[in-house]
Amino acid sequence: MDEQRQLMIEDLGSVLEGELLVDPLSTALYASDASLYHVPPLAVAHPRTRDDVVAIVNYAAEVDLGVFPRGAGSGVAGGCLGPGIVVDFSRYLHRILSVDASTVTVEPGVVLDELNRYLRPLGRYFPPDPSNAPVTTIGGMLAVDAAGSRSVRVGSTRDHVERLELVIGDGSVIEAGSEKLLSRGTGGPANLTDPYQRLCDNLERILRENEELIGEWQPALPRNCSGYHLRGVLADDRLELARMLVGSEGTLGLFTRATLHTSPLPEHRGIVLLLFGTLEEATRCVQAISTLQPSACDLMDRRVLSLGRESDLRFSSMIPAGSEAALIVEQVGMSERETRERIARVISAARATAQSTRVAFEAHDFDGVEFLWSLPRRIVPMLTRLKGATRPLPFVEDIAVPPEQLHEFLTAAQRVFQAHEVTASLYAHAAAGQLHFRPFLPAPADDSGQRLEELATSLYEEVFRLGGTVSGEHGDGLSRTPFLNKQYGPLCRVFQFVKDLFDPQARLNPGKIVPAAGESTPLEFRASQFSRPPTDGSTNPTLKPTQDPSDPDLVSLGGSWTAEEFSEAATDCNGCAACRTISPQQRMCPFFRIDHSEHASPRAKANAIRSVFGPLGTDTLVSEELRQLASLCFNCKQCQLECPGHVNVPQMMVEAKAAQATVDGMTRGDRTAAGVHDLVALGGLMPRATNWLLGQPPARWLIEKLLGIHRDRRLPALARRSFLRSLPRRWSFRPRPGARPKPVVYFVDHFANYHDPELATALVRILEHNDVPVYVPRDQYPSGMALITSGDLDSARRLAEWNLRELGELAREGHRIVCSEPSAVVCLQQEYPRLVDHPDAAAVAEQVVEAGTFLAELHEHGRLSLDFEELDLDAGYHTPCHLKALGTESSLRELLGLIPGLRVSTIEAGCSGMAGAWGIARDNFATSIEIGRPLISRMQQGDFGIGTTECSGCRLQMQQDSSTPTLHPLKLMALAYGLIPEIGQKLPDPASPPRRRSHRELVIS
Ligand SMILES: Cc1cc2nc3c(=O)[nH]c(=O)nc-3n(C[C@H](O)[C@H](O)[C@H](O)COP(=O)(O)OP(=O)(O)OC[C@H]3O[C@@H](n4cnc5c(N)ncnc54)[C@H](O)[C@@H]3O)c2cc1C
Ligand code: SF4
Ligand code: SF4
């Protein structure tokens, strides 16, 4: 560690209640946000209190460093990036402090959706609606005056602020609201001994002296968050200081607390999706519709619409392939009748204006309205999924023009794009004149700056000509501050006066809004790090020469990825921060949900790998810091599924673990999880004795010490004989080539084989009951998913090669390979092709199918027997992550619905926290329980007679602290078919009430 960082730890780290991080990996994680830029900070602070923030600002002043506040880091202009101390408010300062009838007081790290979830039961909400509400923090929203589609009706963040507490440049704390003016701009006789009064008085003076300049140069636009908001701050005898501070991007003060106005939840909403033959027709309609005062009127172009079609089957069926443009128009009203009338008027106005108008969707209920809004919410981040020579880049993505100039500006913008030979996607909050363009350009490299600047300059000339602004709601940040001189001319001097009042030493977010003093160095782009020359002599002493990822000797990877593919996968992450969600509607990321730290987020894991191939050097892959980061991933694959760019973070973490295992061995937890197969196979030689031992607390204590299996984890009993050892001969005859009907092959995997042969039998009997012949290869091995998740890729590869030998020929002959364990499907379908360079890996991946999906196919073709007996039972169903990862919802859950009397409710409680065998390890147990707590608690409520899920690991967690039995859905089907009546003995006795398990029941039989 260099001297400067060492001193920081000693002088600042020691006084903070929160944390100060200076290691190269942590600082690399905070070097980027959702923008194109890369600026490594010197240190990252996680304050826990306002006093921590004061200490950071004072320390920065002492040692001449900049302070860069940060929320979720979802900004697209690089607003939170800087080379000094980044202050992450989202880590600890995220409490809701108090609420009354019409206001709520919060810390800045509170996430907007969290706040609204808290307010909803009170019938209130915080109205500004940026599309990334599941992740954006209130601090970030205040700093950029965030707004969304409904800004024409509800306004922006500024319109809902009562008071702000902030730490300003000299380290003092002020509370700003709407202040009564004492001096009335004369420079006296205010109470000049009170620093706050002095500040207000000076500000009043600056505003009065420059009133004309402000009126002339700051456009009165519905959306404008560029520069400081000086217009209208002096009103009557009041100084609207809180309003002025909103949008100041952390350059005037660091917000530590905010009192916000809440509003009653809107009573009724109606929404319509209108399609048009040309973009021009759609923009003309905006004018007509705006007179009807919609609560939102958003415009989408052809590219955006075609992404929408890809995002959901329902959208692809309602939006024809050739649609050129669309408007989403929302109206609110006191009753559904009113919203219907208002939407009908919108449709008539559109039809009267544009002949090609087509109504694609209309809704007047909550679900329908939310469904349609999910279209733009999904698309904007999806833009980044587009691969190829060019990508849609955010750098002129926040232009706003007077709404009446929309059409003229769009025509001018098209001319500019043509002149620069680029195309661009467009999504616009059209009624407010807010346009989100993303030009398609090559990923920025070191020499891209000039091209981006030239395009921006040409486009902004048109913006200024029509009285618009470079930023309507995302802020100036790094990408727009250089253009403020052109936009505001002499008003920039006034911005400087204001800055000097609050932050005379220019320590607070320097370089944003008011350009930093001195020579400006060209900014680095995050995607350009691979092509940069060695960074010797950099300000960051830990940087190593940049590596060329195409060098095959650079890093030895466990899977069949090349280093280049590995690093490219990392650069696919655009930093959008969508993976910081803790929304109950989503699954990712179990670790981030319990921790709220950037390090736990999938984004951090992708950024870490990007830095490994960039500034940090490949040695970092096996560093302790990266080992800790990789331990915050158990390969559940939910981030890959839900990330708009489908960034393969889990694979990156598997590779990192594998590299670490090669150098330093596996972590204790991973070793335990990886070794489970062997331990169980050993225990299987003496199942009775093993089961007895597993149920004895003293023996469990010893097992924990010796084998690392947590003493409190309930473990599944071993079967007397494994399924494959007791396999009836008729299921083990290899099918003749050309046999008709073609038998399916059953891949049993570890759990059904050693612990639950009844499940394996259930599947085979169900298949036979439906006239599907089955072949069970006797010499198959477990899939090896636990080994892959732990990074033991060599052992996993051996299993994979063996299994491919067993299954390959069958797959090539066209036999379906059915699995009762979802992880086995994921393993054979997604992991094997990356793990081994084997000719049969692709054929097996093609043929493998989850049992529920296979049975659902039979049902679809009318070939599933429906002769179920009644099961009078309430079942709670949990969807395993690996089933979701297959891209299908649970078919078995649907099929259970065919059983008479069986009432199935889906439990929405997120990931179970087991990740196969991961959750049994002593080192992982507490985290596993914390992640799985919502599911465990749900099972403890006792309103289900039975739990049911396909995943064996999830089943263990569901039974961890509950006496309610949990069975695979196939067993319930087999019981209802009357194929295995003994399963009925596992069902609860309706006469005895559910109970918590006793500590003696350590084994689940
Ligand atoms: C997919 C996507 C969709 C988006 N949609 C919208 C949208 O619909 N509307 C919209 O307005 N924006 C949108 N944005 C832009 C951006 O996310 C928002 O502006 C957001 O409010 C930023 O919040 P954050 O918590 O991520 O802040 P960050 O990105 O961390 O920071 C943003 C700015 O706030 C400052 N800041 C953060 N915390 C504090 C604090 N406590 N005190 C002082 N300054 C602070 C930072 O220094 C920085 O200047 C979108 C971004 C993405 C990636
Ligand atoms: S991993 Fe995906 S969701 Fe997360 S920041 Fe990157 S692109 Fe966004
Ligand atoms: S795979 Fe799961 S645990 Fe790993 S980063 Fe993604 S969501 Fe988190």
Task: Write a compact overview of the structure shown.
With about 1000 residues, the chain is an alpha/beta fold. The protein is built from 40 helices and 32 strands.
Written overview of the protein:
- The protein is an alpha/beta fold and 1005 residues long.
- It contains 40 helices and 32 strands.
- The structure holds flavin-adenine dinucleotide and iron/sulfur cluster (2 copies).
- Residues 33-34, 68-76, 79-80, 89, 108, 130-132, 136-137, 139-141, 143-144, 146-148, 249-250, 254-255, 380-381, 473-475, 509, 576 line the site of flavin-adenine dinucleotide.
- Flavin-adenine dinucleotide binds at residues 33-34, 68-76, 79-80, 89, 108, 130-132, 136-137, 139-141, 143-144, 146-148, 249-250, 254-255, 380-381, 473-475, 509, 576.
Report the β-strand fraction as a percent range: 5-15%
The radius of gyration is: 30 Å
- Give the mean pLDDT: 91
Straight-line distance between termini = 54 Å
Bound molecules: flavin-adenine dinucleotide, iron/sulfur cluster
Query: Which ranges are low-confidence, i.e. pLDDT below 50, for 5 or more consecutive residues?
Result: 530-547
- How is the quaternary structure best described? single chain
Which structural class is indicated by helix and strand composition? alpha/beta
Helix amount, in percent? 40-55%
Number of strands: 32
Q: Tell me about the biggest sheet?
A: 8 strands, antiparallel
Number of helices: 40
Key structural traits:
8-stranded antiparallel beta sheet, globular, 5-stranded antiparallel beta sheet, 32 strands, binds iron/sulfur cluster
